[in-house]
Amino acid sequence: MFPSTHCAAGCGRLVLSGSKLCAFHTVEANAEAERLGGFIQNLRIIRDLNAAGLHFEGRDFSGKEFYECDFTGARFSACSFAGTTMTTVFFTGASFFDCDFSQSNLQFLSFAAANAQQTTFEGSTLTSLNFLGAHISNCNFTNVDLYNSRFINAILFNTRFEDCNLKRVNFLKSARTGVTFKLSNTWEAIFEANE
Ligand SMILES: [Zn+2]
């Protein structure tokens, strides 16, 4: 899983794939994002990649398969992940603006403490995803199978969960403003303790 080498600056983080340094210590963060963004676009299956902390803008990653990859703290603007398959990918603390995860099949992903704005997951299967403490605003979860996903302590704003499968989905201690659940099985979701 991921490169196991630690950053040469001694910070304890793991190195970016193909580098001796982490995103925090490289002096070429933009060049590293360019290099790894191109690397991803040239592959169909991406495994064990560490791109934590990099900023990707306008990238088309649609249709790719990602396994055991680390994008912790990364930033994505206008990137497409449409039609992707992902298992065990870390987007912990990452931010997304105007991104597209529609028609994807994602399982065991961490979006804990992530920030997602104007991002769509429409028509996707999101199994056992973790949105713990995530900030999600103006996002679209229409026609999504969210089975066993967790939005515990998440802050949800102007976001649609229409025609979703919410079985075993946990919204405990989440804040929800302008959130719609039309045609979704909210009775199978968990909103309060002891339910
Ligand atoms: Zn470092």
Short description, anyone?
With 195 residues, this protein is mainly beta. Helices cover 7% and strands 22% of the residues.
How is this structure best described in words?
The protein is 7% helix and 22% strand. By secondary structure, it is mainly β. The protein has a single domain (29-188), classed as Pectate Lyase C-like (3 Solenoid), CATH 2.160.20. The protein has a 7-stranded parallel sheet. It is elongated and about 50 Å long. The model has no long low-confidence stretch (mean pLDDT 96). The structure holds zinc ion.
Number of strands: 12
Bin the helical content: under 10%
Shape: elongated
Number of domains: 1
Secondary-structure arrangement, i.e. CATH architecture: 3 Solenoid
Please report the number of helical segments.
1
CATH topology, which one?
Pectate Lyase C-like
Give the spatial strand order of the biggest sheet: 2-4-6-8-10-11-12
Task: Give the helices and strands, then pairings.
Elements: H1 29-41, E1 45-47, E2 55-57, E3 65-70, E4 75-77, E5 85-90, E6 95-97, E7 105-107, E8 115-117, E9 125-127, E10 135-137, E11 155-157, E12 175-177
Parallel strand pairs: 1-3, 2-4, 3-5, 4-6, 5-7, 6-8, 7-9, 8-10, 10-11, 11-12
The protein binds zinc ion.
Features:
binds zinc ion, 12 strands, seven-stranded parallel β-sheet, 1 helix, mainly beta, 7% helix, five-stranded parallel β-sheet, 195 residues, Pectate Lyase C-like
